[in-house]
Amino acid sequence: MHIAVVGLSHRTAPVEIRERLSIPEQTMEASLQQLRADDQVLEASILSTCNRLEIYTLLRHPEQGIEAVSAFLSQVSGLAVGELSPHLFTYHHEEAIAHLLRVAAGLDSLVLGEGQILSQVKKMVRLGQEYRSVGPILNRLLNQAVSTGKRVRTETNLGTGAVSISSAAVELAQLKIGQARGLDELVPLDQEQVAVVGAGRMARLLLQHLQSKGCRGVVLLNRTVARAEALATDFPQLPVQCRPISDLDHCLSTCSLVFTSTAAEEPIISAQRLGPLNRRSSLMLIDIGVPRNISADAATLPGVDSFDVDDLQEVVARNQEARREMASEAEGLLREEAQLFLEWWDGLEAVPLVNRLRTQLEEIREQELQKALSRMGPDLSARERKVVEALSKGIINKILHTPVTRLRAPQPRAQRHQAMKVLQDLFELQEQHTEP
């Protein structure tokens, strides 16, 4: 068995590639079933966010398994494997484990130390369990990643003041508006007419940061107005007008700054939509949705500036250096957690040998038990038979306890191999090979 991860992220692929590999929750079950249908994929779990798609697997054979996962990604994206492969990364075993722990800790995020990724890893674990695509190996690894992410945030300073994609988007607006005024600094948003399209978690964070940056009011549009109104109640100090998505054209005509973060799989704003509108002289669009909510051609119109998640790098670079020092605190914890999992994994190596020993002792126990019961004659009661059988099972369990515990305990691999060899020779526990 072999642990591997195949995927892409903001580090390896532009947004136009990432959006073709975004897997929404409503299709996650079918995607996991499709992966597991290949006999090379023993266990699988998918992490799909705006900045990454990663498939964690337990494979029967590394090469054939990676080919199966690559073929799945090709089918999902509609891109040939040759077109897709330059954007993919593949990590095996120790590297795959280390990568997952870095992701859960926020060390591989666009915004170093961001907290939202941990909840997304938790969601990956929940869906893998719910759809029965993970088994004992990935289940342990993924849960350890979650606990590691929590540990990093409680035992280091990395989570202190951590920013999110949403806060970076607001800072990008401040920076670009400042640059338009000839200033190289973040300016308040008190002069902007602002709209937010969507009412999910990202929209909540947008409202939170817009409020802290001096915004005087927001138009919040959503397909379900009641959901927008429920979100608005959490921001009593920020005037929020809740409108249906059908009012989008009106907002695009009257607002100067529009953020989009919806689950739409096709763009909802395009040059074709913007062209006929009687817009004000300038309009800034900031899209943090993947797949994108705003088509690339929107920026070709005069007076329209359009940005997507890949444009956040400019803002992130301004405060990344200070956070790198905090990240170094977390690296030692990640090495500890990775070693714990690898020691547990190494202990699994002894399981087939232990099972053969248990089977052999169980056969001996059963044979000797039947001999003893036959000598005792028919007068032995059912209760007495159960007592004798429980006694024989208890003796076997006591004999097995120490060698099993010692074999599974953390120890150097050479030492475990030596102990396994001794046990195998003493009890003649040669693995049985059957003809194909």
Radius of gyration: 29 Å
CATH architecture of the largest domain: 2-Layer Sandwich
What can be said about the biggest beta sheet?
A: 6 strands, parallel
Q: Please identify which CATH superfamily of the largest domain we are dealing with.
A: Glutamyl-tRNA reductase, N-terminal domain
User: Could you tell me the number of beta strands?
Assistant: 10
What is the 3D shape? elongated
Low-confidence stretches: none
Proportion of residues in helical segments: 40-55%
The secondary-structure element order is EHHEEHHEHHHHEHEHEHEHEEHHHH
Task: Explain the overall architecture.
The chain has 436 residues and is of the alpha/beta class. It has three domains: 2-162, Beta Polymerase, domain 2 (2-Layer Sandwich); 165-313, Rossmann fold (3-Layer(aba) Sandwich); 348-426. The chain is built from 16 helices and ten strands. It has helices spanning 15-18, 28-36, 62-77, 81-84, 94-105, 116-130, 136-155, 165-180, 201-212, 225-232, 248-254, 271-274, 313-348, 351-376, 382-408, 413-426; strands at 2-9, 41-48, 52-59, 89-92, 194-197, 218-222, 240-244, 257-260, 283-287, 304-307. The strands form two sheets. It has a six-stranded parallel β-sheet with strand order 7-6-5-8-9-10, with helices on both faces. Strand 8 (257-260), helix 12 (271-274) and strand 9 (283-287) form a beta-alpha-beta unit. The longest helix has 36 residues, at 313-348. The radius of gyration is 29 Å and the shape is elongated.
